[in-house]
Amino acid sequence: MRKVALVFVLAVFGPSLALAWLAWRSLSNQQLAFERQQTLLYQGTCAGYVKDVSEFLGTRQKEFARHVELLLATRDPQDVAGRLDDELLKTWPMAEVGFAVSLDGHVLAPPLLARPEARRFRLENDLFLSNQESVEVYWTGTKGIQPSGQAEFSNENPPDDSASTSKETRATPSKTPEKSRKVIPEKDGAMDAKLVSKLSSGEAEFRQLIGDANEGIIARFLQNRLKLLLWYRSPGHPEMVFGAQLKLVELVKGLRNLIQAGSALHNEICVALLDENGRPVAQSHRDFAADWKHPFVSVEVGEALPHWEVAAYLVNPAKLRESEQAIARTLGSLVLLLLLAIGLGGWRIVTDLKRQLTLARQKTDFVSNVSHELKTPLTSIRMFSELLAEGRITDEEKRRTFLHIITAEVARLTRLINNVLDFARMERGEQQYNFQPCDLTALVRESVAAFRPHLEANGFTLSCEVGAQPCFVSGDRDALAQVLVNLLSNAEKYSAEKKEIAVSIAAPNGQPASVEVRVTDHGLGVPRGSEEKIFEQFYRAHDSLNSGIQGSGLGLTLARQIARAHGGDALYEPRPGGGSIFVLRLHRP
Ligand code: ADP
Question: How far is it, in rounded angstroms, from Cα 29 to Cα 196?
Answer without folding.
Answer: 27
